[in-house]
Design goal:
InterPro entries: ABC_Gly_betaine_transp_sub-bd (IPR007210). This is ABC transporter substrate-binding protein. Keywords: Signal. By secondary structure, the chain is of the alpha/beta class. It has 2 domains: 69-171 and 278-334, D-Maltodextrin-Binding Protein, domain 2, CATH 3.40.190; 174-268, 3-Layer(aba) Sandwich (D-Maltodextrin-Binding Protein, domain 2). It is built from 14 helices and 10 strands. The protein has helices at 2-27, 39-43, 61-69, 80-95, 109-117, 128-135, 146-158, 180-186, 216-223, 238-245, 259-263, 292-304, 307-319, 324-334; strands at residues 72-75, 100-103, 123-127, 162-164, 174-178, 202-205, 229-232, 251-255, 267-268, 281-286. The strands form 3 sheets. Strands 7-6-8-5-9 form a 5-stranded mixed sheet. A 3-stranded antiparallel sheet has the order 3-10-4, with helices on both faces. It has a two-stranded parallel ribbon with strand order 1-2. The chain is globular, with a radius of gyration of 42 Å. The N and C termini lie far apart (125 Å).
Amino acid sequence: MWCSRTNRAGGLLALLLALALLAAACADDPLEEDPDDDPVEDDEPDEPEDDEPDEPDEPDDGDAGAEEAGPVTVGSADFPESVLLGNIYALALEEAGLEVETEFNIGAREVYFQAMQDGDIDVLPEYVGSLLNHLTEGGLEAETDAEELYADLEGELAEHDVTVLEPADAQNQNGHVVTAETAEEYDLETLSDLEPVAGELVMGGAPEAVERDDGLPGLERVYGIEFAEFVELDAGGPLTIEALETDEIDVARLFTAQPVIRENDWVLLEDDQGLVPSENLVPVVRDDAVSDDLTEALNEVSAALTLDELLDLNQRTELQNEDPDLVAEDWLTEQGIVE
């Protein structure tokens, strides 16, 4: 009996010893997780370094502005030089990569500047003194300082949401022209010389000269000139030129840079009392259409445009009847503005 009990106890003791060894072996298993490790973190997939979604690239401001702005519309007045300048501006802007539309021969300043105010025209060729006189409703006093006129124009245009760019050296004023025969007959050299004989003479020109201050009102106010008659024709165009050639009129309102004056040996009467202000050529642009590319292109045109250049250009369009678009392209190419 005793032997039987001893064997059972020995068997139980052996079993317990085996279990203890097994437990110790499990505790020392090199494949077991380190108790300091976080099993949850190890079981999760690796996360990206930046857990915020990538934002799309911002569009380039210049590109976005060009897409939103749409085409630039270049306009002009209804006389040859303005149409020529409009073509020059349009081609220069196209070369700068802008989409361009044109609306030429719109009419007088009273019409085309209103079109700009209405948003139908973005760019116009203009003349410093005449535009300033228009904006001040004839309140412009005679000034010979071109820089002062330009500064005044900047201020006036700002009130209309329009920007004036750099002026050209070239200018083209309203002038009063007679034939050599008329000048000799009446001994005419200046506008002051007209005063005692104006009652015997007929003047002709653009219809707006009837109301503009540098037209009939100014001639009477500054010089005391009152003509026998005024014939409404066109703005320095073929009607006025033909009327002077055929003696239908005695005094023609033309532009001082028109080549027809020197071509016919006509006499441009000196504005000795300073009625007509400086008329440097300038591009004017609606504020909404202004961009760096546009500004750079048009300022480059102004920098190249001298009085001699303007006279040569007008010679080709007005006397040789060349296409103003082709003349504009030739000149821009010569100046290196267009390739």
